[in-house]
Design a protein that fits this description.
The relative contact order is 0.17. Strand 1, helix 1 and strand 2 form a beta-alpha-beta unit. The chain folds into two domains: 174 residues, FAD/NAD(P)-binding domain (3-Layer(bba) Sandwich), CATH 3.50.50.60; 109 residues, FAD/NAD(P)-binding domain, CATH 3.50.50.60. The protein is elongated and about 70 Å long. It is α/β, with parallel strands linked by helices. The two termini are 20 Å apart. Helices cover 25% and strands 28% of the residues. Bound molecules: flavin-adenine dinucleotide. Flavin-adenine dinucleotide binds next to helix 1, strand 2 and helix 7.
Length: 296
């Protein structure tokens, strides 16, 4: 059986598309490799999403997911590993092969890695890319946050409330984060910021992270390392026209291939926010609805 519309990714962008499609009588299939909500699960507090003065990311994810489920949108929890397009679009996971007329790519982006030796092996055993998700595992322990942008400083503030000591390591001599956040961090006596330095090695003892080694050979006690050095879009499986892997779309969210749309953080754009991702989800859905209605 061929699907009419497959949406890959159940972040706010993909779920917004699904709401509009389903309400217009088109039954999309959402494919999701983790949990519905995507990056929302990493956002501690959201204060700029209209309609909610203040809401936690996971709560907003749950609200949107509930709305989608009440519309009876179908989900397939599986990772898409390949997509091909000839007459039709074929999406492959390890177990399934699904054909679809329209495809909406809403795969978002993922945290950038440092790619040091043992990093992969230590994920979940000392290395994390999400303070909000894993911070509580390091209660009263010593942690290191790598990065100097808003995300890194927000992570450090969050961790300072839980951990014994938080060291922020930044490779430049000034932080990119907003001054307000930096001032907030400095109010915590259990934090330090180390400038002009880089982590060059993870030091372990019996498979457990114990310290990090810095470029200047200093070693810092670290039960956990939180890497917050930005994001990269998820691989562009269809080799669509792109800029540094961010998919290029037109104003209707069309990619360089017919019937293939891309939305949200996966695309090349100026603003990577919830409102823009939701907006792009709606534009793609409405374009598909218009095409389908004109074919009736
Ligand atoms: C810490 C943090 C705080 C933030 N705070 C704010 C804020 O306050 N306000 C704001 O407006 N924005 C904020 N943002 C940005 C906002 O969260 C993102 O712009 C938005 O969530 C992007 O949504 P998306 O649907 O495009 O992608 P994502 O949320 O990244 O969702 C993509 C989904 O696709 C799935 N996926 C990826 N590849 C595959 C595959 N191969 N097969 C199946 N599924 C796949 C992923 O598992 C994921 O669920 C924040 C982001 C972070 C990380």
């Amino acid at each position: 059986m061929e699907e009419k519309v497959v949406i890959i990714g159940s972040g706010i962008a993909g779920m917004s598309s699904a709401i509009y499609l389903k309400r217009a009588g088109i039954d999309p299939l959402i494919m999701e490799k983790e949990v519905a909500g995507g990056q929302l699960h990493k956002a501690n507090v959201i204060e700029n999403y209209p309609g909610f003065e203040k809401i936690s990311g996971p709560d907003l994810a749950f609200n949107i997911y509930n709305q989608v489920k009440k519309l009876d949108v179908r989900y397939l929890y599986d990772e898409v590993i390949n997509i091909t397009k000839e007459d039709t679009i074929i999406i492959k996971t390890k177990k399934e092969e699904i054909k679809t007329k329209y495809l909406i790519i809403a795969t978002g982006r993922a945290p950038r890695k440092l790619n040091l030796e043992n990093e992969e092996r230590l994920i979940g055993k000392g290395i994390s890319y999400c303070a909000l998700c894993d911070g509580s595992l390091y209660k009263n322990k010593d942690v290191v946050v790598i990065g100097g942008g808003n995300s890194a400083i927000e992570d450090a503030i969050y961790l300072a409330n839980i951990c014994n000591k938080v060291s922020v390591i930044h490779r430049r001599n000034n932080l990119r984060a907003e001054d307000k956040l930096v001032e907030q961090l400095k109010e915590f006596p259990n934090t330090q910021i180390i400038y002009d330095n880089e982590v060059v090695e993870y030091i372990t003892n019996e498979d457990k992270l114990t310290k990090v080694k810095l470029k200047d050979n200093r070693e810092i006690k670290a039960d956990g390392v939180f890497i917050a050095i930005g994001y990269e879009p998820i691989a562009n499986m269809l080799k669509l026209e792109n800029d540094n892997n961010y998919i290029i779309v037109d104003s209707k969210m069309h990619t360089s291939l017919p019937n293939v749309y891309a939305i949200g953080d996966a695309i090349k754009k100026d603003v990577y926010q919830l409102v823009t991702a939701a907006n792009e989800g709606v534009i793609a859905a409405v374009d598909i609805i218009k095409h389908e209605k004109s074919n009736l």
